[in-house]
Amino acid sequence: MKRFLALLLVAASLSLAASWVAATRSDSRNTPAPSPEKSVRVDFPDGPQADIRMPDGRHERIRSLLNVDRRMHYGEFVWNDDSVPTGPAWVRVDLAAQTISVFRAGHEIGTAVILYGTDGHATPTGDFRVLEKDKDHWSRSYDAPMRYMLRLTNDGVAIHASDVEKGYATHGCIGVPPGFARRLFDVMNNGDPVVILPIRNESNAA
Fold this sequence. Notes:
Strand order of the largest sheet: 5-8-7-6-14-9
CATH superfamily: L,D-transpeptidase catalytic domain-like
């Protein structure tokens, strides 16, 4: 967790990106369609505030976030990629907020509350790439299923489907709700980037 991650958002971007944080996000497990008066997305205006510098030096432009304005709970997620152009995707994991966000063409298309490692099995932080995909992966180390597995490290850290419940943790992996894991598996490919932000203090936001 001590690995430095040079990801920078200016203050204007942070105020909008607060909807990423679990303390302010919510939706049901079935992600119902928004009412007509509620926009599905919060659009970013053109300008430098929407530009994120990634750890490898490249820049990603954020064009919109999902409009999730209530607290999300364990096991819940939101996914909406309607009208979002096809193309490569990337993932942002915030361990402090216990959330994951998926982006494509600059638009957030999915977000969920996650599980992560603890008790001597910390989730590594930094800049990663998807090394392997396995829809029906079975862990020999833990003799357990890890469906929709996206491997991030050679020693087995991955994003995979989990029962995301309060009080649960992983052995270093990122656990996401099964429905979210299936959608994530479909849009991510080998080589796609995954950025994991460290916990900045000892408290959890979710």
